[in-house]
Amino acid sequence: MIPLPKLHTRRLCLRAFSTEDRARVAALVNDPDIVRDLRTFDIPYTKVDALAWLETLQPAWEQGLAAVFALCLGHGSAAPVVGAAGLVIDTPSQRAECGYWIGKDYWRKGICSEALPALLDFGFNQLGLNRITAECLTRNVASTALLTKVGFTREGLFRRHFRKREDEPFQDVIAWGFLKEEWDQRP
Ligand SMILES: CC(C)(COP(=O)(O)OP(=O)(O)OC[C@H]1O[C@@H](n2cnc3c(N)ncnc32)[C@H](O)[C@@H]1OP(=O)(O)O)[C@@H](O)C(=O)NCCC(=O)NCCS
Description:
Helix content: 25-40%
CATH topology: Aminopeptidase
Bound molecules: coenzyme A
Number of domains: 1
Shape: globular
Distance between the termini: 35 Å
């Protein structure tokens, strides 16, 4: 099996996570502002939770189900993990849904704006995807700005589609899409 490659941008290295990253991942994710709109994570988020998640990633890659990258700020071996970005893949449809989070200390520094194009390029040109989708809550202004900036098309609205807990109101979710041909034609 080909290992998940390393991808490089100006400031970032995107690499496979290792179980050694569990303490760092737990420290970054264990924050209500990170998990609020994410399906996969909740607080309290411990090193044990992080290890359980990290242990799913290599098998998911080997089975062609997902490609999840650690976002490291810098290019050396000591570059700290500052977030994650990945694709959940539907092979027959040549389609994937992307997801991402960045540790709060690193917000609004353009990190996800820099990582996402590298992830999309990998999806379209290495994995041979035809379409990459994203979903974000209407209240998530950061994710909405990010997806708009990167060039996703807003395709629709899932009304009252998501809630994290049963005692919360249902949230509307925006559906976004990016086609391979649009990726190839971008300026
Ligand atoms: C969404 C998230 C990944 C954005 O990451 P980031 O690295 O801070 O984003 P960037 O710095 O690249 O910013 C991208 C755009 O969003 C805007 N933006 C970022 N955070 C914002 C905020 N809190 N409010 C308004 N706009 C915001 C930026 O200004 C930028 O647009 P601009 O360059 O036109 O000004 C980050 O806020 C996060 O991890 N949130 C919690 C997890 C989450 O919600 N994940 C997405 C689920 S759909």
